[in-house]
Amino acid sequence: MANISIDPRYHRLARFHRIQNAGVKKLNDATVVILGCGALGAQHAETLARSGIGHLILIDRDFVELTNLQRQTLFTEEDAELALPKVIALKNHLVEINSSIKVTAHIADVSGDNIVNLIKGADLLLDGTDNLALRILINDACYQLNMPWIFGSALESYGMSHNFNFPHLSELPCLRCILGAIPLESGDTCSSVGVIQPILQLISSVQTAEAMKFFVDAESSRDTLFTMDLWASRSQNVNLSKLKNPNCPTCGDHPTYPSLQEKKREAQRLCGDGSVMIREAKPLDLNKLQQRLEQKNMKHQFNEYFLNIHLDHHRVILFKDGRGIVYGVNDTYVAMEVYQELLTILSVR
């Protein structure tokens, strides 16, 4: 083991007695999925890239906006001006930080019909999402694939993290088991109550540290729910092992993974001011749509990732996979009407 050679950039990492050269080699051989590349996920990506994780798979549906820059690391004003997809902007910056690793970017709206194919083959998944429904989907997919994953959440100055499906922690409950007992999500969002950057940094540090431990020193992995209110300077570790449900449809004796069976697409309010996303299963030909917009003299901007369309009272962004984001509305039914009317005008449906 002492003869294992490593890239000189990792010498300070290897000098930590829990990691050493052998641990660095394990990190270099690892593949990690980061699902959600915003406030938490972008920091996960930077930390793991600098730590030498050999392959990072980035998954996110969103693009960079100016309001992201207060809390989402690596993104720049230029990224926001170009409205780059977050995974593309992150990949651009990560390869400049560490050219020796592989970074795969997926611009995708994760759902029950695509999550397994997007994440399979990885060794570990880090949660960077901002809603419980998507985390339940992650939970089902990871347990079906027998993949460990690390939950993380932060709002205002409060955050939490928990390790799920780690091989040596099989007695612990999954996310679905604990939902009825622990309030993991409130009705608030970052746009309604805000969030401070330090709690995001702290929770991301907890998650990425657990990821590193998983690969080089798994027995040291935390087996409790960690919570922290950074403003009040209060932290807590809670043992949840008694919440394990043997009949759980995700981690029980006869799993059915119910979230993976839900193929329905629908309208969903986003974590932002006055925007609703429409989920659709059918892809869109953005090049043809752009031509129709030009024929109808409709104001728009077009790039290889999406169409940004300016209507009289709303702005709509259309993606290749059929998704649309309608701005200027809070009502999902109104947003669906705007979306469908636009596609009708463009003779798509």
Automatic annotation (TrEMBL):
Q: Which domain of life is it from?
A: Bacteria
Q: Where is the signal peptide?
A: none
Q: Where would I find the THIF-type NAD/FAD binding fold domain in this sequence?
A: 10-249
Q: Which UniProt keywords apply?
A: Nucleotidyltransferase, Transferase
Q: Which InterPro entries match?
A: ThiF/MoeB/HesA, ThiF_NAD_FAD-bd, Ubiquitin-activating_enz
Coiled-coil stretches noted in the UniProt entry, renumbered to this chain: none
Identify the Pfam families for this entry: ThiF (PF00899)
The record's listing under SUPFAM superfamilies reads: Activating enzymes of the ubiquitin-like proteins
Under CDD domains, the record lists: ThiF_MoeB_HesA_family (cd00757)
Gene Ontology terms, MF aspect = nucleotidyltransferase activity
Q: In the UniProt record, does the keyword Flavoprotein occur?
A: no
What protein name is recorded for this chain? Molybdopterin-synthase adenylyltransferase MoeB
Organism taxonomic ancestry: Bacteria, Pseudomonadati, Pseudomonadota, Gammaproteobacteria, Cardiobacteriales
